[in-house]
Write a structure and sequence with these properties.
By secondary structure, the protein is α+β, with helices and mostly antiparallel strands. The chain is built from four helices and nine strands; from the N terminus they run ααααβββββββββ. The protein has a single domain (about 25-155), classed as Metal Binding Protein, Guanine Nucleotide Exchange Factor, Chain A. Helix content is about 20%, strand content about 25%. Strand 1 (about 70-75) and strand 2 (about 80) form a beta hairpin. The chain is globular. About 25% of the residues are buried.
Length: about 160
């Protein structure tokens, strides 16, 4: 982004109403307190899923996962991605070109100074990662996911029961 585009974006951002940044509280199918989630999850998973942190690039064992199966939300166990949508993006995080229909919800994240599309589990609201428009066809999208926000379940193994 050159200086002119940056200044134009900053000027237009100032015109947005404050409510555009605040976001609306959504009622999710599964809600737990921060204390309840912190008892269920590892510290790293909790920090990513419910404090919107990012795990260090290249650290997820899911990067090398090549088996057929399903990736589920580490918090509530909702299926998020099928293994046939996973690909090697070179980003250092597990990447997928398409989520399972209805599995995610998106919001706009301004934490790095410009808008990015953040995606969350549609069931528990856990932060999964960000989506970019530089992925493979047919979608052209890259769902860049924190590995600690997911669990892998190999084909033939039962999916974990959805948390209540």
């Amino acid at each position: 982004m050159d200086r002119r585009h940056c200044l134009r974006w900053m000027g237009s951002a100032m015109l947005l109403p404050i409510s555009a940044f605040a976001g609306e509280k959504k009622v999710l199918p599964l809600q737990k307190s921060k204390q309840e989630w912190s008892k269920i999850l590892s510290p790293a998973s909790y920090k990513v899923l419910f404090e919107e942190s990012t795990e260090p690039a290249g650290t997820s064992p899911l990067l090398d996962e090549k088996r057929e199966g399903t990736y589920v939300c580490a918090a509530c166990h909702q299926p998020i991605f099928k293994s046939n949508a996973k690909y090697e993006s070179g980003s250092g995080w597990p990447s997928f070109w398409q989520p399972i229909a209805g599995a995610i919800a998106t919001s706009t994240d301004y934490k790095v100074g410009y808008p990015r599309t953040e995606y969350h589990c549609s069931r528990c609201g856990g932060h999964l990662g960000h989506v970019f428009n530089d992925g493979p066809q047919p979608s052209g999208e890259r769902y860049c996911n924190n590995g600690v926000a997911l669990k892998f379940v190999a084909s033939g193994e039962p999916l974990p029961e959805l948390r209540k």
